[in-house]
Structures are given as C-alpha cells and as structure tokens.
C-alpha cells in the first residue's frame, strides 16, 4: 500500500508500506479522504507542531473518511462507510469523568506528541480500534464526512460558551475551523454572527455560512464590548487582545486557535473590569456524533471544502492549504 510520511521540514514522501493486519478488536479501513489540518501544516512546514517535534517519519491526518476493508469480528461489512474518532484516552482521572479528552496519557492520530509517534490516516489502509468507528448515515458522502472531526472541534468550542441562542457572536479568524465555528454558532441559534479575517476571501466564505457582520482586519474596526461571545480561531496573539476588547461585560471568550508555546504579548487587562469568562477549547469528547448528524442533515458545509487533491500530490496540496486566500479546507484523496 501507499502512505504519506513527513520526514522533516518540507520533506513529505509517498511511500510503500506493508498492508497492516488487524489484531483482535481492530478493523482495517480503506481510507478515501483526509483533511489537512493546521497541525499537519505545522509538521510539514516547520517540522514541529508547538512543542512536538518530528523525531521519526510521521504519517499525518486525523480528519478522515473511509470504508471498512476487513472486520475480523464480522460486525461491519466490507464497504461500510465510516468516519473515525481519532483519540485514545488516558487513564481515568477524578474530576474529568465527563471530559475524557483532557486525561493525560492519551494520543491522537497523526501526532508527534508521543514516541513512537501516533501515525495518522493519510495511508491507503489504516487500522483502528472498534470503538473509534462511527458508521455514516445513508446518503452522507464520504467527501463531506471528512469534515466530521474539525466540525466536532467547532461544536465543542461552541458548547463551552453555554447557551448562545439569541446572542451576538464574533468569530476571529475565518480559516477552516473559523468557518466551522460560524456554522456551529448558527446551528446553536446565535442571533448575529460576525467574522473577522485579514483577507476578503475567507470572509466571503463566512458570509455564505451565516456571518452577517464582516470585518477586514486593517480596514474595519470592531467596537469594544460589541459581542456577547467571541471565538478566537486564528491563534494569533494580537487577536486574543482583540477578543478580550470585543467581548461585552460579563461576556465569554473561547480560545479555539492554537497559540504559540511561548510567552506572548497579550493585553488581558479589560478581562478584569468586565469580569469576562476566558475558556480554552481542546479537541472534543462526544461531539463527533453531533457532527456526523449535522453533516448528514445538510449539504451547506460542502462550501468549506475548497480543494480535493490526490495524496500522491501532497506537496501541491500542502502548498494550497497554506494559502488562505486560495483555499479553505483541502482534502487529500486516497
């Protein structure tokens, strides 16, 4: 079989590998689509994602759709369309019973956080544990189903803000996760959704998904205390300061974008006088099931997928995915 492997900075190879054989409790999938995530871009262009550096060849990919190739248990027939919850959780920790994704010691497809690395889904065949599989509803295309994981991230972030029905919501950063946050906020009943970005093209995409107040950074201003809830999806330090300023008194800021693993210049002073709630969002728990249902109910999120490129052309695909003016979500086709 073929698989992608990142060997270091801007060194990705389409390699031959042996077809893996499932152990008891495992299912072999024939992967069809894999989304390129921000962490994948960091691994490829920088050789590391935050503090996690590549120390051995890493197959990227945790956003995927596939069909069952072999289920030794006989529970799932060959050809069954599926997506995958890409996390394995660590040991139970008191106080985290309803947040298994926060337990230490777990791992995630396509991650260099552990050694050996947890290899990802950008391979023709992939072994997954039975409990990770989510069978797709009839009629949900495999291409759209590859959005289940990032949509689950957005749904989790929105849930952390509490009930946003009828509220004014701002999404800072209209990249793929920001676009999905716009859609998740609309799904949750937000009355008004604003979106800000440094480029016009992502803002046009956000408008198509329900954002009605568009802010081009450098041209337009966001009034202080103008939104009830702010989702910071860019991971840019200056945007964190903007989020704190934009939130109303007693409002909520949810940090969704991955921040640098370093001391950064952020002005949090307004947080005190406004008694803001500032929350971090990390992956998700069960929201992938909600994401699958949402994707099956509507084709609206097809607009988030801007390119589908053969995995053998991964260098091109990663270059396109890096350019936010040219792309939103880029999928690898396997």
Please describe the structure with a list of short key phrases separated by commas or semicolons.
GroES-like_sf; 9 helices; six-stranded parallel beta sheet; ADH-like_C; metal-binding; zinc; globular; single chain; alpha/beta; 334 residues; ADH-like_N; seven-stranded mixed beta sheet
Describe the structure.
There is one protein chain. With 334 residues, the chain is of the alpha/beta class. The protein has nine helices and 19 strands. The protein has helices at 38-46, 142-145, 148-160, 176-187, 200-208, 237-246, 269-274, 287-297, 314-322; strands at residues 2-8, 11-16, 26-35, 48-49, 52-53, 63-70, 81-84, 87-88, 107-108, 125-129, 133-135, 168-172, 192-197, 213-216, 227-232, 247-255, 277-280, 305-310, 329-333. The strands form five sheets. Strands 3, 6, 7, 10, 11, 18 and 19 form a seven-stranded mixed beta sheet that branches. Strands 14-13-12-15-16-17 form a six-stranded parallel beta sheet, sandwiched between helices. A two-stranded antiparallel sheet has the order 1-2. Helix 3 (148-160) packs across helix 4 (176-187) and helix 3 crosses helix 8. The longest helix has 13 residues, at 148-160. The termini are close together. 43% of the residues are buried. The model has no long low-confidence stretch (mean pLDDT 96).
